[in-house]
Design goal:
With 473 residues, the chain is of the alpha/beta class. The chain contains 17 helices and 22 strands. Keywords: Calcium.
């Protein structure tokens, strides 16, 4: 870059684009320096020894410092930040030398939202450091939210107590963070990282999939991951992987019981925000039954079940699958207190249904198959057809079959089957299903059944996305 005049936004953006800085780190720099709105950037260049240089005509202290310290990776070069650069928000070390740098009093940046935003590591950043390919020792003290990209090399990174993001490159790295909610990003293969995240709700992200690693709990609230890379992690609460899979690290069996409901009820790994929320509920004393009901009453769980039921009614009554607009409309009715029987009546009474060339007997048989999961029996078939012959509407018959006690029993049966499959990885056995069906028949709730199946020893052994940390229980 040329320094004979103030640096424009465009010039600095071009520098970021053409440099070796990663896209994520470049985005973090852009957010921190408000590059979307700034016309010029207050910049300084420095060699780590002589006085920093600033562009001719630049007014104000430097917000970003580009540092090029001579040397090779075998050279450990102590770097002392001069007072004139203490207010800078970002330091870009473009150097192959191994650097030892301590930042004691980074700038208190303009107030932005300081809350950590899941899936956006650039949120709330107040200070940023990115280094080169050396074996660096980077210490950033203070309570500000820092973003540190250590580049490649065998790096040691220590942060203060803000909500920090540390990007550890393709080397054997040692990362220690403070009491904030930190995000540690480990990448590459064939190396070993050591991470100690301290207090706070901390997330470690790794390459690949959770299935690529063997995860072993140690005896000091730590886990070791072995696979394409090895990581010894202490103090973290959540592991994410590049493919979107995750592993929640529970501090107690109570936390684990809540977090296993993700797989048991929703059939998926926990998401970071949800896991953090339910852990907070456990710590606040919320009963597991209440947490289970939160899952069962969620739009994700209830919506999927309702959508499937509506689609089945469309198939029975209209001979086609539900369209998005129609399904959404009926789901809204149920969400506002309507029943599936109301939906069945509405669809059966629609103009489209009246146009179906379907005999009364075929109409009843189709409802039996889709609402009750079995062919119609002769007595039931004849009774419903007789009602239609004597003046009952198809809407009334549809509501009667869908709202019957047998239909409710099928819903319970399907619920138990789904729990067995997601929680244990197998179909329900006859004895087990009969036992849980009896629980529901005797006044037990779906939450009771979910807690029982998901909390069984078989389900716990099957679950591989929740790990209880030894030393915390």
């Amino acid at each position: 870059m040329q320094y004979d005049s103030p640096i424009t936004n465009t010039e600095f953006q071009t520098f970021l684009t053409t440099s070796s800085i990663s896209d994520d780190t470049a985005a973090a720099i852009s957010t921190l320096l408000n590059l979307d709105s700034a016309d010029t950037i207050n910049l300084a260049s420095w060699d780590g020894v002589n006085a920093p240089e600033i562009p001719t005509g630049q007014e104000g202290a430097a917000d970003v410092v580009i540092v090029n310290v001579p040397g090779a990776a075998t050279d450990l070069v102590p770097v002392e930040i001069p007072d004139s650069l203490n207010s800078a928000k970002a330091f870009i070390f473009d150097s192959n030398a191994s650097l030892a740098v301590t930042f004691d009093a980074p700038v208190a940046a303009e107030s932005a939202s300081l809350a950590r935003v899941a899936a956006d590591t650039t949120a709330g950043i107040e200070f940023l450091v990115t280094t080169g390919a050396g074996n660096d020792v980077i210490t950033v003290n203070g309570d500000q939210n820092s973003y540190i990209d250590a580049g490649n090399g065998n790096d040691t990174i220590v942060t203060g107590n803000g909500n920090n993001t540390v990007v550890a490159g393709a080397g054997n790295n040692n990362v220690t963070t403070g009491t904030g909610n930190d995000t540690i990003i480990l990448s590459g293969t064939g190396h070993t990282d050591i991470v100690n995240t301290g207090a706070g709700y901390d997330v470690v992200q790794l390459d690949g999939s959770a299935a690529d690693y063997t995860i072993t709990a140690g005896n000091s609230n730590n886990v070791t991951l072995t696979g394409a890379q090895t990581a010894a992690i202490t103090g973290a609460e959540f592991l994410t992987f590049a493919d979107g899979s995750s592993v929640a690290l529970a501090q107690s069996e109570a936390e684990a019981s809540a977090l296993r409901l993700y797989e048991g009820i929703l059939g998926r790994d926990a998401d970071q925000g949800g896991a953090q929320n339910f852990i907070a509920q456990v710590e606040a004393g919320t009963a597991l039954t209440d947490i289970a009901n939160s899952f069962l009453n969620s739009a994700e769980f209830g919506g999927a079940a309702t959508e499937a039921s509506i689609d089945s009614l469309y198939t029975s009554l209209l001979g086609r699958g539900a369209d998005t607009a129609g399904s959404d409309s009926w789901e809204a009715i149920i969400a506002n207190g309507g029943s599936l029987a109301d939906v069945a009546a509405g669809i059966a009474g629609s103009a489209e249904a009246q146009e179906q060339d379907q005999s009364n007997g075929t109409f009843v048989d189709s409802l039996y198959l889709n609402a009750l999961g079995r062919p119609s029996d002769e007595a039931g078939h004849d009774a419903w057809v007789a009602q239609l012959f004597n003046g009952a509407s198809r809407a009334e018959v549809a509501a009667g079959i869908v709202g019957s006690a047998e239909a409710a029993e099928k819903i319970n049966s399907d619920f138990i089957d789904a729990l067995y499959l997601s929680a244990t990885g197998r179909a329900s056995d006859e004895a087990g299903k009969a036992g849980w069906t009896e629980v529901l028949a005797n006044g037990g709730t779906q939450a009771d059944v979910a807690i029982g199946i998901v909390g069984s020893q078989e389900a716990i052994a099957h679950n591989d996305n929740v790990v209880v940390l030894h030393g915390a229980v």
